[in-house]
Amino acid sequence: MSWETDLVNRRRQLTGESFQTAADALRAEVSALPVAALANLRAFARVPVMRMPFGPDLELPPGLRAVLLPDATARSQIELEAGILDAATQAIHHLHRHPDGRLTRPVVVIRSVTPLRNRLQLHLNPVAVAPLLYELMPFGFDGEVSGICGLRARQQRRSTELFLIDVPTARVELPGVGRAAWCAAAAYREVRDRELGTGEYLASVAPDRLAAAEERVLAAYGRVFGPTRIASGFLRRIALLRQALWTQTWTTGCTDLNVEWPGDDPRHAHVALALADPLFGIPGAEIRTSTTLHFPAARSACKHDTLCGPDRLALRSSSLPTGDGTASFRKGARPEWEAWRQALAGRGHQH
Ligand SMILES: [Zn+2]
Fold it and tell me: How many angstroms separate the CA atoms of 248 and 90, rounded?
């Protein structure tokens, strides 16, 4: 295998891109490198990934990493992506309530990602669009806001762009989420919102500015809590877990991101190594044990400064489902999924 093919495959296992997409992205970037940087990259590419722990001598020059798998650098972009990772976890619970949902088959929200320097593209499982948008879009009730404060959407015929109304350069594209999917997601959301009986969808109330509740929450708490750089970095590599039955993530304090999936498939050691890959892993990651990555070089901007240790990512295991526990669950009415299905079918008749 040539060293270029090896690079493409190392990127693909993290992003879930097709071979061609990853190869094109890498070729465009690598061919623009100065000769000295290219020689540097070839040398790094030959270092076996199995070497543990990765010492500082294996730290790539930051410019080279951005060529191979760019990470978000702007604070608002990082926060937006950390918020999306959290929403993807919540969306899993919706998918387990889908009439065809099973605990015994893999459920993914994000199938693949295309990481770009100034934005991110997410290729979603079509069934996950409605739940993810439900969890992402800000909803105000009793002065609180669920979802990501300031998030708004621009609708195109075949894609949707999510952006922050107060920092419009922070954005995420959802290719393939066109008008039909958007309308079905709105039908899904309206059923859920009606069940709450109170509150308002802030993108309708304040389409071109922050709503008062959003301003208050942003001033008091900020947009997202936790080690946001690690969360953003993990989102950009989330396809690493696409074979898992499901994935849950949550933060503990301002330094710890927890990632959990049932059993040991994919293997924890494999996931840890890929996330600490000196070329494609999350920058600054260092393996100290088989299940915890340390990030001495990737501190998040929290307000406690010296009180807080370096960021960490812990890989955790939950128990495997015994049989298909959703059978009795599925018998209950799922009006939001029924509204979603009817909206999709209705659109189908119009075309
Ligand atoms: Zn802190």
Answer: 8
